[in-house]
Design goal:
Elements lengths: L1 E4 L2 E3 L5 E7 L8 E7 L6 E6 L6 E3 L7 E6 L4 E6 L8 E9 L1 E4 L3 E5 L2
Parallel strand pairs: 2-11
Antiparallel strand pairs: 1-3, 3-8, 4-5, 4-9, 5-6, 7-8, 9-10, 9-11
């Protein structure tokens, strides 16, 4: 099971840190990804982090503003989001992949003044 938390309402330019807590299995061997889906739009990949070397990739729209990380000891992954923009408003989901794919239920992020 994956549970996201940390979403909420923030003003443009603000920051949020999302957490993805894994239970029921050890995330050590799972690649972790963050995705988001805005109303009326398709789900898009925000960022992914590998399991072996911790290498990360980012979507073009969030490069330089978002940082993905993972703490295998806590079975938790994070997405630090800085310089938030109204267009970052979406439901954010985390996903774990290692042959089998698991999704969380999502957390709402709203960027508005």
């Amino acid at each position: 099971q994956l549970v996201e938390s940390g979403g909420g309402l923030v003003q443009p330019g603000g920051s949020l840190r999302l957490s993805c807590t894994v239970s029921g299995f050890t995330m050590d061997f799972y690649a972790i990804g963050w995705f988001r889906q805005a109303p009326g739009k398709e789900r898009e990949r925000v960022s992914c982090i590998d399991t072996f070397d911790g290498s990360a990739t980012y979507g073009d729209s969030v490069k330089g503003r978002f940082t993905i990380s993972r703490d295998n000891a806590k079975n938790t992954a994070y997405l630090q989001m800085n310089s938030l923009k109204p267009e970052d408003t979406a439901v954010y989901y985390c996903r774990a992949d290692f042959g089998t794919t698991y999704w969380g239920q999502g957390t709402q992020v709203t960027v508005s003044s």
